[in-house]
């Protein structure tokens, strides 16, 4: 039979001390029970709700301001771990063989898809393989090659200027620092981080439309300015995880967490997402929304 712990006051007041609680421990079948009058076998287990949160608390609390900083960091990193397991092949989806090719391909990917860029760059790099060749390209010929990508005149102008700038100011080599990269024509912070992270292994966060959308849905930030999103999300993860974090979110955004019809019912992180329910929650209907990126 289980025995209880007896709690009583020790009589020490007469000695000039404040009364204190004294705990008498007595054995039960599962060992010693202390500091409680309830036998260990009768202690209720903590109730656990959706996604591993305590009962009455959910990921939705992140949007209500009730999530602590520590809880936010843990939830964010757990989401990233799950996405890493879901997309083990996540990587940059632009084809490239060098930092120069990645730089050019990233500039060309604006307002079009990676699939179309990948269909165009083999011809481009075969004809103009390096900054020197591109700097001397015939504009009309270059425009014809880039026509399928849209905005081909502006992109042709950007590439001609890029080739000359890299050749004249950096000896034909793609610079390896953010301050230098963002001085190049057509290169902003997003493009620079893509090149640094995927060509040179330098930690950086690429805030494209998918990354920003998912970071807000996950409750990691409320910002819409890419620089502020980068700063707030970056503070939740160690720098060594930044590059792969971007790949995980971008792959998830392209395949499940769509802008208009997210597949909530087929989402591996649904239990941790404050925005769960914005899209289709029926598992069968949601599965039909899962797709590979379109060309």
UniProtKB/TrEMBL annotation:
For this protein, what reaction is catalysed?
A: 2'-deoxyribonucleotide-(2'-deoxyribose 5'-phosphate)-2'-deoxyribonucleotide-DNA = a 3'-end 2'-deoxyribonucleotide-(2,3-dehydro-2,3-deoxyribose 5'-phosphate)-DNA + a 5'-end 5'-phospho-2'-deoxyribonucleoside-DNA + H(+)
The record's remark on the cofactor is: Binds 1 [4Fe-4S] cluster.
Q: Which residues form the HhH-GPD domain?
A: 108-255
- Source domain of life: Bacteria
Top EC class per UniProt? lyase
Q: Which Gene3D superfamilies match?
A: Helix-hairpin-Helix base-excision DNA repair enzymes (C-terminal) (1.10.1670.10), Hypothetical protein, domain 2 (1.10.340.30)
Write down the HAMAP family for this protein, in alphabetical order: Nth
Q: What role is this protein assigned?
A: DNA repair enzyme that has both DNA N-glycosylase activity and AP-lyase activity. The DNA N-glycosylase activity releases various damaged pyrimidines from DNA by cleaving the N-glycosidic bond, leaving an AP (apurinic/apyrimidinic) site. The AP-lyase activity cleaves the phosphodiester bond 3' to the AP site by a beta-elimination, leaving a 3'-terminal unsaturated sugar and a product with a terminal 5'-phosphate.
Does the keyword DNA damage feature in the UniProt annotation? yes
Which keywords accompany this UniProt record? 4Fe-4S, DNA damage, DNA repair, DNA-binding, Endonuclease, Glycosidase, Hydrolase, Iron, Iron-sulfur, Lyase, Metal-binding, Nuclease
Which InterPro entries does this UniProt record tie to the protein? DNA_glycosylase, Endonuclease-III-like_CS2, Endonuclease3_FeS-loop_motif, Endouclease-III_FeS-bd_BS, HhH-GPD_domain, HhH_base_excis_C, HhH_motif, Nth
Name of the protein: Endonuclease III
According to its UniProt entry, this protein's organism is Raineyella fluvialis
Give the EC number(s) under which this enzyme is classified.
4.2.99.18
Q: Give the required cofactors.
A: [4Fe-4S] cluster
Family note: Belongs to the Nth/MutY family.
Q: Name one GO biological process term.
A: base-excision repair, AP site formation
> Which SMART domains did the record assign?
ENDO3c, FES
Molecular-function GO terms, alphabetical: 4 iron, 4 sulfur cluster binding; class I DNA-(apurinic or apyrimidinic site) endonuclease activity; DNA binding; DNA N-glycosylase activity; metal ion binding
The entry's [4Fe-4S] cluster-binding residues are 257, 264, 267, 273
């Amino acid at each position: 039979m289980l025995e209880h712990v007896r709690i009583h006051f020790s009589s020490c007041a007469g000695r000039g001390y404040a009364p204190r609680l004294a705990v008498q421990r007595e054995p039960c079948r599962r060992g010693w029970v202390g500091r409680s009058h309830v036998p260990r076998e009768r202690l209720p287990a903590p109730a656990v709700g959706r996604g591993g949160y305590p009962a009455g608390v959910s990921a939705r609390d992140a949007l209500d301001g009730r999530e602590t900083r520590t809880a936010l960091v843990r939830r964010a990193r757990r989401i990233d771990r799950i996405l890493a397991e879901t997309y083990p092949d996540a990587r940059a989806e632009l084809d490239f063989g060098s930092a120069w090719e990645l730089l050019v391909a990233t500039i060309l990917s604006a307002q079009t898809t990676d699939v179309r860029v990948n269909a165009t760059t083999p011809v481009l790099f075969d004809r103009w393989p390096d900054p020197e060749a591109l700097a001397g390209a015939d504009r009309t010929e270059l425009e014809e090659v880039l026509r399928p990508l849209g905005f081909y005149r502006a992109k042709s102008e950007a590439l001609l200027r890029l080739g000359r700038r890299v050749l004249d100011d950096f000896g034909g080599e793609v610079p390896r620092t953010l301050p230098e990269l963002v001085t190049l024509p057509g290169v902003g912070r997003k493009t620079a981080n893509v090149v640094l992270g995927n060509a040179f292994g330098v930690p950086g966060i690429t805030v494209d439309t998918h990354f920003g959308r998912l970071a807000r849905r996950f409750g990691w930030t409320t910002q819409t300015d890419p620089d502020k999103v980068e700063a707030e999300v970056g503070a939740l993860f160690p720098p060594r995880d930044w590059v792969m974090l971007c790949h995980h979110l971008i792959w998830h955004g392209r395949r499940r967490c769509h802008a208009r019809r997210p597949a909530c019912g087929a989402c591996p992180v649904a239990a941790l997402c404050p925005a769960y329910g914005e899209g289709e929650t029926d598992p069968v209907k949601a599965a039909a929304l899962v797709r590979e990126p379109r060309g």
